[in-house]
Amino acid sequence: MGKYKDSAEELLEHIGGSDNISVVTHCATRMRFVLNDPKKADAEKIENIDLVKGTFTNAGQFQVIIGNEVATFYNEFAKMAGVGDTSKDEAKVAAKQNMNFIQRLISHLADIFTPLIPALVVGGLILGFRNVIGSIGMFTEAGNFSFAMFGEENALTLVDISQFWAGTHAFLWLIGEAIFHFLPVGITWAISRKMGTTQILGIVLGITLVSPQLLNAYGVPGAEDIPFWDFGFAQVEMIGYQAQVIPAILAGFVLAYLELGLRKVIPNVISMIFVPFFALIPAVLIAHVVLGPIGWTMGSWISNVVYSGLTSSVGWLFAAIFGFAYAPLVITGLHHMTNAIDLQLMSEFGGTNLWPMIALSNIAQGSAVVAMIILNRKDEKEQQVSVPAAISCYLGVTEPAMFGINLKYVFPFLAAMIGSSVAAVISVGSNVMANSIGVGGIPGILSIQVQYMIIFFIAMIVAIVVPMLLTFALAKTKMGVNAYKRLGK
């Protein structure tokens, strides 16, 4: 008899039985269900199961928070329910049956950027570390540390006084450049992976967008002579699309749909030769002649609108709205769009004023959870969810905190939104810029441009203190009292 037999039986009953399960899989801490009829799942009864630490629905999946023992529990539950092992990709496909058009569109965007997140996070940390050793001057000419010289023009950096750190700084750029400048390769690969087409063709397409033969995208604005391919009857400019997001997305989908279409008309016996040939060459040509220029224009327009809005006289209003609304965007999945905008801002302006607000929002959500940890310090079951959730929030992953604690009570979620809004106004009002995206919580300060680090640190303190104080205050209001009554606490 299994260790989790009773809990598994209860979950199966309250989920609506085996017949209601279309697909089930698990991640590090959660069971992920795609249900034939989501209404049959009794979330309240499921949350009363001893092993269960919370439930929420996201991206068409009903998710049950189990904890670190989820893998063992999943195996026992799957055997009892008579459901087979299913991959996460299959679960995502099945989940789309519960999505509307907008949700499907956002899901597609998430499927493109989610595989790239580990590289983007590593790249952000690397650029942040280079920022610390190569841009922060805190040493005298004699090589002595002096915090009083922080930010002074004549202060020296670690790179200035140490050959080791100078070599490290130069070496780390090898990785940073590979991740951000050659990002189109990752995007076109991710699209081919998502569309089920030949991934190496996606990689080759991406390389043709950033080839060393082309004029680097960063050199285009001031270039007097742009090289070109001369076909006699037409000339095509040899422009690279380093760090460009939209041209890569457009090109990636053209290649994918060309390959899928050709598979339907070319016989299988010769498809290995002719499908890649007739898909890749037109895709590369279309990318450089049509989609590249169009995508560059679209990307520039979007980044200019965002940057101009945030640096205008009413930038504080944009910041207040974004800071307040970012957490709800995470719930809907719309936050994935900010990745593309951030990367475009980095390409156009050498930094992003959007990313600092995202980092502050994550910190604010974590701070609200910390307040709930203090308020509910005698609830051992909730501590098992809230403590890891707060830690992950401060490291940039907000979903466990939002779905496991803040949304369950509502008032801490509101407190975090308000705190995030106030912190965002401080950040944007002080023109804070980040060199890159990266870890979205407290370590995000490493990505902030040196001259803005102190004011961003102040914004971080606000994102910690305000949500905590508001959570304590709201817990005593009618909203807080009703939340505790609703949850039977």
TrEMBL record:
**Which BP terms does GO give this entry?**
phosphoenolpyruvate-dependent sugar phosphotransferase system
Q: Where in the cell is it found?
A: Cell membrane
Q: How does it sit in the membrane?
A: Multi-pass membrane protein
Q: What class of enzyme is it?
A: transferase
* Entry annotated with the keyword Cell inner membrane: no
GO CC, any one term: plasma membrane
* The enzyme's E.C. designation: 2.7.1.201
Provide the PTS EIIC type-1 domain boundaries: 107-486
Q: Which Pfam families match?
A: PTS_EIIB (PF00367), PTS_EIIC (PF02378)
Any one Gene Ontology MF annotation carried by this entry is:
trehalose transmembrane transporter activity
Q: Which residues cross the membrane?
A: 109-129, 170-191, 200-219, 239-258, 265-284, 314-334, 409-430, 450-475
Q: Which SUPFAM superfamilies match?
A: Glucose permease domain IIB
Query: Which intervals hold domain PTS EIIB type-1?
Result: 5-87
- Source organism's superkingdom? Bacteria
Active site, per annotation? C27 (phosphocysteine intermediate)
Q: Does the keyword Cell membrane apply?
A: yes
**Which UniProt keywords are listed?**
Cell membrane, Kinase, Membrane, Phosphotransferase system, Sugar transport, Transferase, Transmembrane, Transmembrane helix, Transport
This protein is called: PTS trehalose transporter subunit IIBC
Gene coding for it: treB
